[in-house]
Amino acid sequence: MATSTTPLLLSCFMLHLASTIVIAHSTENNYYYNNTPSKYIPKKPLLNVIDSCWRAKPNWSSNRQALADCAVGFGKDATGGKYGAIYRVSDPSDDPANPKPGTLRYGAIQNEPLWIIFDKNMVITLKNELIMSSNKTIDGRGARVEIADGPCITISNVSHVIIHGISIHDCEPAKPGISTPNHVGHRLGSDGDAISIIDSTNVWIDHCFLARSTDGLIDVIRASTAITISNNYFTQHDKVMLLGHSDQFTKDKIMKVTIAFNQFASGLTERMPRVRFGYAHVVNNKYDEWQMYAIGGSANPTILSEGNFYVAPNDPNAKQVTKREVKENWKSWKWRSSKDLFFNDAYFVPSGFGSCAPNYSPTQSFVAAPAYMVPAITLNAGPMYCTVGRAC
In this protein, which residues make up the domain named Pectate lyase (predicted)? Predict the structure, then answer.
């Protein structure tokens, strides 16, 4: 009879082979920087599969909606405002009770599809949570846009939302108040997340900076699914990303989230992500010295960690990448590491049997890059600050 380790070793046979892109290893002496061997410190960025779709094109500003074709993973079909008009934000003010044309809130709550862009650099301090309507893109390319020092973004009971190229930080809880035309009724407020995704589908969060919020940086809860979170820069926060509402909310079994090409940078404690019930494909992310753990969960989620670059902290009690929020009955959970790289004594505790492949559709599917390329393909995580008329 085969040993019990055989299914564990073979269960990921359906995963893609490593990318055919090649990069030379450094021949320098093997010194270290932030616990990372020097040969993995990139001299210049490389384009990952999402960025290669649009960043090399100097005409991106005249064909902004083409960005909607560039997502991969479970959020691939998020069209945002692809089929709508361009809406220009010229006014950084905010009036939740009577939104003015030219403000971000006015565009975000309209019923028709809109591709929202910004006429200039601006810091937007929202007076209450910004509740998105369906078929909207917030596209910060060409300007430096911050949502900060107030309530932030809520994506609730909608579909087809893209948020790209903005900074969201120092978010505060929202007050009870009126809602948008598509969310009739009196809102009870929000907890202070940077982005809350609630009972929504086809959402793509890309190239954003997220930090220092009252609650989480990104929450995906209450039966949300078809989500991609990519190319973002996370820093200076405790509970980073929650996938799944509670251990009792079984509707989250439908949840499927792709987390790709992100930098989980300095000052992060835990939940990168923390998962309940659903499926998370965590692929080609760079992790820099978490304070407690990197990937956690409860309620029997399925997690595939593929081609990630893990650098553990110096704390000898925080070397483990994984944390199960349960003391027993977790060995059957499908948590798997495939082609990851581990540094400074980082380690991943696998569990479970059977296939762990994401089973993407042909249009969602992409090839994970080799883990040694991750520092280069995540080097430009966060907003790009593109210049009109030039490639990004």
Answer: 121-316
What single letter denotes the amino acid at residue 353?
A: F
- Whole-number Å distance between alpha carbons of 190 and 192: 6
Q: Which two tokens stand for residue 339?
A: 């082609």
303 assigned to some structural domain: yes
Domain region containing 249: 43-377
State how far the alpha carbon of 115 is from the alpha carbons of 44, 172, 174, in Å.
Answer: 31, 26, 25
Sequence-ordered list of residues with C-beta below 8 angstroms from that of 236, at least 6 positions apart, any chain:
211, 212, 266, 267, 268
> What is the spatial distance between Cα 146 and Cα 369, in angstroms, rounded to a whole number?
31
Q: How confident is the model at residue 222 (pLDDT cuts 50, 70, 90)?
A: very high
Note whether residue 10 is domain-resident: no
Q: Which residue has the tokens 């969060």?
A: 205
pTM above 0.85, yes or no: yes
CB burial of 131-160 (b: ≥16 within 10 Å; e: otherwise) equals bbbbbbbbbbbbbebbbbebbbbbbbebbb
- Per DSSP, 17 falls in state P
CA atoms of 11 and 168, how far apart (whole Å): 39
Strands (E), 141-278: 145-148, 153-156, 159-164, 167-169, 177-178, 186-187, 195-198, 201-206, 209-211, 218-221, 225-230, 233-235, 237-239, 241-243, 256-260, 263-264, 268-270, 274-276
- Tell me how many degrees the CA angle 350-356-362 measures, rounded to the nearest 5: 150
Q: In this model, does residue 106 exceed pLDDT 90?
A: yes
Bridge partner list, 163: 138, 205
pLDDT at residue 89, rounded to an integer: 98
Looking at the chain, the number of H-run helices and the number of E-run strands are: 3, 33
Rounded to an integer, what is the distance from CA 183 to the centroid of its chain?
25
As for how many domains the chain has, the answer is 1
Rg (CA), the chain: 20
Parallel, antiparallel or unpaired: strands 145-148 and 241-243: unpaired
Active site amino acids? 271
Residue 30 lies in a domain: no
Cis peptide before 273 (omega within 30 of 0): yes
Tokens found for residue 87: 């809406």
The CATH code of the domain that includes 271 is: 2.160.20.10
Is residue 28 in a domain? no
